[in-house]
Amino acid sequence: MSDSERSPLLSAAGSSKGPKSRDADESFESTPLLSSSAATPRYDGERDDAHPGDAASIASHATDTTSARSVKARSIRWPSVIAMIVLAFLALTVMISAFIVPSAVEEYAKQATVIEPTNLSLVSITANGIRARIQANFRLDAQRVENEHVRRVGKAVTWLAGSLGSGDTKINVYLPDYNDVLLGTAAVPSLSVSIVDGRNNAVDFVADLAPGDADGVRMIANEWLEGRLNNIRLRGQADVQLKAGIIPLGTHTIADSMTFEGSKLPHVPEYNITRLNFKEEPVPGEPNAMAAEVSIQSFNEYPVSLDVPELAFEILVPGCNPTDSSILIAAATTSRVAVRAHAAVVVDAHGLIKELPDSLTQLCPNSDSSPLDMLFKKYLDGETATVLVRGQKQPAGDTPDWLAEILSSITVPVPFPGRSFDNLIRSFSLTDVHFSMPDPAAEPDDPSSNPRVSGTILVLAGLPSEMNFSLNVTDVRANADVFYRGDKLGELDLREWQKANSTQIPATEDHEATLKIQSRINDAPLNVTDSDVLTDVIQALIFGGREVILTVKALVDVKVQTILGELVVKAVPAEGKIPVKPLGKDILGSAAPKVGGVEITDTSPTSISLRASVNITNPTPYSARIPFISIYVENNGTTLGEAFAENLDVRPGNNTNLSVSAIWNPSMGGEKGIQRGRNLLSEYISGYNTTLTVRTHRGSIPALPSLGEALSRLNFTLPAPRLRLPGSGDDDDGNGPDDDGSQAHFIRDATFHILSSTATFTLVSPLTRNTIFIDSVNATALYNHSEPIGRIEYDLPFAAPPGRSQTPKLPVDWSMDSVGYGKLREALGGRMKLDARAVVGVRWGRWVERVWYVGRGIGAGVRL
C-alpha cells in the first residue's frame, strides 16, 4: 500500500513532508481517534488523575482557545468548512449506497421487471442438450412498484445507470425440496439491456440447455403427469459479471427462488385421435405382425416452436393390480414433428405388435378376467382406457442418448378414448327354434328347471373402419336379457361356449365391412323372470296375428382367431331384435287334433283314467320338447277333468301318435260338474259340436308354478277331438264316411226283424283294449226325426268289446199306427234311414253313468 493510501482522509493543516513532519504524522495516526476518558474533562471540572503539571497545560490550552476565537472572529477558514461538508456528504452517500439504495433497488427490480416471452424455438438437439432460441420483451415498469420511496430511488438509480450488461453466464437450476437435485443448466450469452423506466428491450439470444440429474427430471415429470405436483420450487444460481455502461461492476453470485403453483404449470394438451388403423404387416423372417397406425392432432397454445426428431416408445398396459409391473405389448415410433407456436400439431405414430405375452392373457388371481379383458371392457363400454407410453432406452434415428435416457425413465399414462359399440349388431335373428319345457324332476337351481331354447343364431355385425385385418369367430357365449315392449321377459343363459363360424364381407363404396356370424345353440336355459310378460307374449302370438318383436341385450364373449393367435374378447355389448312369427289366430283349429287308440287305464266310481294316441298338426315354424305338462279340461267354466303329457316332441307339420293321458272326473267341478259332464258326454257321443276349454294351472309346469299360474288367464277353447272309430273310412283312419255315405257313429248299423219284433245293432268302440258294458237301454227309433217306429227297453247287460261288435237281439215294441212303422214295412227287404233317441246305462270298470244318445241317419236293414 502506498504512503498516500495509508494516510488519513484529512491530514493536519500546515503539516510538512519532511522527516520530522513524517514522524509527527506517524505519531498522529497512532493516536486514537477519540482519546480515553482519563484525558477527558469531567462535567464537574475535575480530573480523575490530576498531576501537578496539568494545570499549566490547561492554562496554556485555555490561552490558545481564547486566541483562536479571536482569530476566527477575524477570518473563517473556508477550505476546512468545505472539506467537512464533503466529508459529511460522502459519508451519507456511502451509508445510502451501502444500506438503503441496494435494498431499495433490489425491491424495485423485483417489482418493476416485466418479461414477456414472444417465442421459444428449438434450434437443434445436440449430443449434450438443446440449443434453443429465446425471444422476449424486457422492460422495467415503475408503476408496478407499490412503495413510493422505493419507486423514486429505483427510477433514479436506473436512470443514472442507463443500461446494464452481463457477460457469458451459466445458470444452474436446483430443486430445493428434492435435496437440491440439479434440474438443468443453461448457458446464456452476454446481454445488454436498457434499464430506464418504460423502455422496452427486444431480447433475442440462443442458449444451450443441458439436462441435470436424470432422477430429478424423472421425479418431477412423473409427479406432474400423475397430478401430484401441487407446486414446485426452483432455485437458480449463477455467477454474473455485470457492468453499467462501460463501468465494470464485478462478478456477483446471484441466487433466487421461485415457486410455481400446480394450477399455473403447463398442462398436458388435449388431443384428438384423427386416424386409427389396424392392419396385418409382414415382418421379414417372422410371422406377420399386427401394425397400428395412429394420427394425433393437438394445438400448441404456448409461444414455443421446436422440431421433434423421430422417437421410439414402448407401449404397455397396466397389470392385474396397480402394484404389478406393466406389460409390454408393442413398440412404436413417431415421425419427425414440427411444433409451431399457437398452431396445430400433428403426430403420426406407427406401432407393431409381434405377439401377445402370456401375462397379458392369463387370468388375474381371484378373477375371471385378464389384463387384456379389463382393457377391452373399458374400450368396448365406451369408457376411457389407459395405455402407458415409455421411451425406449435404445435411441431411434438421430435421437441423442441423453434424450432417450430421460424418456425411458418417464412413463406417461395416455387416455385412450373407448368407442361405443351400441350399433355394432346390424341384425340378429333366431331360426330353427326348438323349445324344451322344464324337467319336472329337476331341482330349482338346476338349469334344466327352466325352459330351454335351441336354434340357429345369425348375426350380422358391422366392422369398424379401423379394423383392416382378417379375423374369424370360433366360439361365442353370452348372458342375454330378453325384453318385450321394454319389460324384461327373462334371461337366456349361454354361459357355455357355443361353436361358431364367421364370414368376413369386405367394404364396398356403398356398404361398410361386415362380419356374418353363425352359431347353433342347444338347450340354452331361458329363465323366465316375469311370467306376466310371458303371458303377454303368448297372447300376442296367438291372438295378435302379427310378428312379435323381442329385444335382446347381451354381453357376449367371443373367441377370435387372428394373426396374433386366439384372443378372447369379453363382454362385447350386443343388442338385437328377435322377430317371432305369429302362431296364427286359429292355431288350435289348425292343429286339428284326432284321438285314437284310446285305452282305459283305471277307473273309480267318479272318474276314468285314459291313455290315447293323438295326431295333431303344428302350423307354426317352431318345435318344442315337453317333458311334462298338465292342463285342466273345462266346459262352460266347469272343470271336468285333467289332461297331461310326458316327453312330447312336437315339430312343425304333422305329428302322429303322440301319447296323451287324461282323467275324466266331473266331480272336480262338484254337483254342477257331474251334471255338466253327463250332458257333455251325451252330446259328444251323439255327434253334437262340442267344445272343450283347456287351461293351465299352478301345477301345469312343476318347475315353473308361477308360469302355469300366469298362463291360466289364457283360456283356449277348441272343438272336442274326434275319436278314430274302426271302419269309419278308408283304412279305418276315422276320416272318411261310412259305406252308405253317413258320418261315423258309435252305432254303425241296425237290422229290424218284423216277425220276431227284435232289432240288432252294430256298435263300434274307440277303445283298443277295454270292453264297455251296456247295462240298460231305453230307446226309441224314429223316422224323419219325429215319427216313431218302435220302442226298445232292455235291462240285461251286454258287452261292447273293442272294435266292431253286435248287440244281442233287443225286443222292439212297434208303434203299429204310426207313419214310421208303415215306412218300415215298405222298406221290407231293403234299407232305410232312421233316427234314434236313447238313455243308456254304461259301465267301464267301476265307473257307471247314464247318458242319453241321439243318433241321426243311421242306416237300418229291414228283415222279416
Automatic annotation (TrEMBL):
UniProt protein name: Pre-rRNA processing protein
Upper classification of the organism: Eukaryota, Fungi, Dikarya, Ascomycota, Pezizomycotina
Record keywords: Membrane, Transmembrane, Transmembrane helix
Comp. bias intervals (Acidic residues): 729-741
Start-end of Polar residues biased regions: 29-39
Record-linked InterPro entries: Ig_Tag1-like_4th, Ig_Tag1-like_5th, Tag1, Tag1_C
Stretches with biased composition (Basic and acidic residues): 43-52
Domain (Tag1 C-terminal): residue spans on this chain: 467-581
Coiled-coil region: none
One Pfam entry name: LEA-2_1
Every Tag1-like fourth Ig-like domain range: 592-707
GO cellular component, one term: fungal-type vacuole membrane
Presence of keyword Transmembrane: yes
PANTHER family associated with the record: CHROMOSOME 16, WHOLE GENOME SHOTGUN SEQUENCE, PRE-RRNA PROCESSING PROTEIN
Region feature Disordered, mapped onto this chain: 1-64, 722-743
Annotated transmembrane regions: 81-101
Organism: Staphylotrichum longicolle
Domain Tag1-like fifth Ig-like, residue spans: 740-852
